[in-house]
Amino acid sequence: MPDQWKAVFQLCCLALAEAAPARIAIYGSCAARADVDAEYNLQGETASGAPLYKAVASDLHIYFDPSCDGTTTDSRWIISHLSGTPDRSLAHDLDGDAACNSVAYISSTSTVAPPQGSTWTMDCGGSTQSVELTIEEVERSGQQIAPAFFCAYSCENRGKVTRPGRCFEKTEVFSTRGVSWMRLATRMSEIPEGAGVNIVPLTEEWATYSAGDMTWEGWFHVKAAPAAGRSMLIGTFGTNDADSTFSNQNRRRHGAIWLETDGTLGLSSNTGESSGYIQGPNVIDGKWHHVAAIWNQTAGGSAQLYKSFKFLHVRYLVIAGRAAILEDFLVNLKAAMALESNTSSDDVWVYLSDEQVIGNEGRTAVSMVVNVERKSADIALARLVRSDTFEARMMNALRITTDIANSYTGLLPVENNQLIYDSMFPTMAYVGNGRLLVDSIDYAGRLTYSPLAENIADNGQFLVGGGHQGRAVECELANVRLWSVALTEDQLRAVQACSLPEPASFIGGSWPHSLHAAWSLNGHFINSFGPLDNLTEESAWEEQLGTGFNSADGMNYPYWKNLLTGQAVQTYTNEMDHHLSRLNGGDFIRGGLCDFSACPAISPETLCPLQRSVAFFSTEECEAFASFNYCRQAGSTRNRPSMPHLDGCHLGA
């Protein structure tokens, strides 16, 4: 054959090869033949030059047959069950039954590919029907199939490999169903004998945990905003009371990530001298979001201004003894200082004390603290230093206070005796701050975190998934964790993965490596501080994370402890008895980051995934894959190095 004809022949063959897709999919079969709706892989060509396809998960084949019984001249494309591999050397009657039996067929003279979008004659369980079948090419995505953790092989008939993976255990999450939430007790149930206190103390675990920097983080899928008013996604607030101000400035202390009625998140705290608010994004978008609150007491992310002075001829004991006078006086002083420092009243803290030195000469000392952003602290300080209106504004705050004249002393008329003295030069100090990160994005805002001697869960409860004013948040939750460090943005990105990094190398330090609590909320186990109340199902087994938590057992960590019997074991197995209860309307459901579509359920018999496989175009390809994976699983005993980069959630073909 001349070279130029060879080139033309090669081009024609190439065009023919490209015309036959490597994989096709069929849709539109009748209900009785639902198994036909599947994907089919190219197996090669028959003697007539037409492509031969086999279903990925069955023995259904699609092929062209010039004469289905060896005598008829009606050429057709056929869909039929074929046991074994059909004889591709036969020119006709490929199934060898000398009959035209089939699941479906369509008359055609084209040998290039099965007709797309055509009417086929199909056996629909006792009746023959005309069915419009859609046949489409399946594009190969080109995704790399990680060979780790495939655990079942069957390479006959070009075979398949089923796969589990690391994230399949995370296929269940807790759903509040809009009626439930979780509560962690941060105070003891009663005052210990001989404690010598009148208030039930904080648990030792919580007092230790919250004394320094903290990170609260977890995965949340919020379904709807609270209709009756904002509620908490995670945090603490009084005893579910919405009032924010009481007499003598006793406010309900809180630190919380709020879910507002418009679906946005926000972070705030008024613990100690904390104030400010950080506005976050709208999270009601049908997606899971990783949400984190970082409380940093030591980084100097915010600043405080300090200013003090004294009122002469104003008796402190009268003010302190009259709630109406005290409350109005504090409100007026805070408003005056907010004007002086260009802040809001919520950012100002006012403290009064008695400076009386002579019986008939009232003296009241005033100390003020103002929370400001670190970047604007110098400007705010300079504003106070240069102010020529400070004393006038403070005196006006005094004069407009309800019934304040009852506190005046001095010579008659007493209304003319008041003045300010010992006005100290303002000073500044750097304090902590709070940060709100959603999907590792740090949202702008200012939150000064200065808890002083108070505790961020001083009220005795830490809530997850709602609880403020008894309002639940309709959401799903997974992998809520409490850290005793302020995680960095890079670290937060790392903990968002399917598998948590090893805390020892991730954080460092002594056990428990700053991870104080980790609730997977998948119905299997709870850990650290103790059980979260209100969960629908509670496992009797609790994973012990750190030496500060039930360490009297003398076990090496981590270990498992039965909450009902006290039994402790080093290794936990699924055969151990569980205690299940139904409480408060929540439920465990399939879903989460690695839901069923990405990570299927595992068979309890084989620990292999259900309804998931990787199909191959040849037996050799399947066997090579299986052999490689066997070496991977055997590890160093087969002279193959460890490949940790293959761990994780794997995508298959």
Helix content: 10-25%
Computed Rg: 36 Å
Name the beta content range: 25-35%
Question: Quick check: average pLDDT?
Answer: 75
Give the oligomeric state of the chains in this entry, treating copies of one chain as homo and distinct chains as hetero: single chain
* Record field, number of beta strands: 34
Number of domain modules:
4
Query: Major β-sheet, in short?
Result: 19 strands, antiparallel
Measure the end-to-end span.
Answer: 42 Å
What is the name of the CATH class of the largest domain? Mainly Beta
Within the CATH hierarchy, at the fold level, what is the topology of the largest domain?
Jelly Rolls
Number of helices: 9
Overall structural class, as computed from helix and strand content, comes to alpha+beta
What coarse outline follows from CA principal-axis ratios? elongated
Low-confidence region ranges: 1-18, 140-153, 157-170, 239-250, 524-528, 536-540, 544-553, 577-583, 596-611, 630-653
What does this structure look like?
The chain has 653 residues and is an alpha+beta fold. It has 4 domains: 18-137, no CATH class; 152-170 and 594-646, no CATH class; 172-297 and 451-501 and 512-539 and 578-589, Jelly Rolls (Sandwich); 304-429, Alpha-Beta Plaits. Helix content is 15%, strand content 30%. The chain has a 19-stranded antiparallel beta sheet that branches. An 8-stranded antiparallel β-barrel has the order 1-2-3-4-5-6-7-8. A 4-stranded mixed beta sheet has the order 29-30-31-32, with no helix packed on it. Helix 4 (323-341) runs antiparallel to helix 6. The longest helix has 19 residues, at 323-341. It starts with a helix and ends in a 19-residue tail after the last helix. The N terminus and C terminus are likely disordered.
